[in-house]
Specification:
five-stranded mixed sheet, alpha+beta, 29% helix
């Protein structure tokens, strides 16, 4: 199965990139990312994102992840139909 076939047949997760992470993700603000119905962990998804957008990996230790508006740990299971938000650290002045 090609990557395009997989993307069209596997249900998707909605992924949002905020602030500086949008630039690191090639200007993406929101994408649909294929996820198996059984789900996958946040950590596994981050590895996939880093492979696609290597600039994101520079933020690895600082990225905050929320799923369905709640902050989660990297071992959190994410399933299709959910919304995952990637946020950089809060900056203030």
């Amino acid at each position: 199965m090609s990557e395009n076939d997989r993307e069209s047949t596997v249900p998707a997760l909605k992924v949002l990139f905020f602030s500086l992470l949008q630039e690191a993700a090639g200007g993406q603000k929101q994408i649909a990312w294929p996820v198996e119905p059984s789900g996958t962990t946040v950590a596994s998804l981050l590895v996939e994102f880093y492979a696609r957008w290597p600039e994101l990996k520079a933020w690895d230790g600082q990225i905050r992840v929320a799923v369905d508006l709640e902050y989660v740990a990297r071992d959190h299971l994410v399933k299709p139909g959910q919304e995952m938000a990637l946020m950089p650290p809060v900056q203030g002045g």
